Model the fold of this input.
Amino acid sequence: MVNRRWQSVRTVHGVDFSGASDAGRKIWIASGVAAGSGLRVETCRRAEALPDSDRQRDRCVDGFVRSFSARYASPQAFREACRAAAGGAELKRVTDVESRTPFSPYNLRLYRQAYFGTRDLLAPQVREGAVSVLPMQRPEPGRPRLIEVCPASTLRRLGCRGPYKGRGTTRRQAREAILARLEEESLTPLAPELRREAVRDVEGDVLDSVVAALAAFRALGDPAVLHPPPSEACAQEGYVHV
Done:
């Protein structure tokens, strides 16, 4: 019997984003469909494999959306402006604290990802009305819904705390254990070829995209996600679903 909670969720894409110069190699997209009350991930692709895409960041992100005039001239300008506004501190959003994300959006390890994700991916879609960005916007019938997730926070919630990125038998076994844990939740077992790819990827990007897809699937099955958030901070800053 199909759980009504997931009846409106048909197709889910989990994007493990990157702001690296070779983002086409680092960005992975896991695509799946609702299968009963679970998610069946059918493909995992690098962004460079998309039509009209490339390994270089500018061409790769343009495969998703058209570029637009930025408010900040560079990722460095974005980070410097954030630090100046915070008096040199590295602040987290309310949702970063609640969802226990590892870093502030303008942390040294994350600011490029935040900058290019906002400038080249999020903003153009908002301007063109291509998606409903929750919780800042109300969901519109027939329009794809875009939410923020954090694979690291999702894995922590599921009790997967050990390192899994890197070479060696221990890290490989950790990736296998994570897949097994995801299957205990709502993930339909991956096809053998996809499973091998997720376990083989020493950088963990394939696995992160699967985690992102599952987190999005579970969040979008929650009716509370489709309504305005109770917190004014979340309405302005966004919310990380884990």
Summary: The chain has ten helices and seven strands.
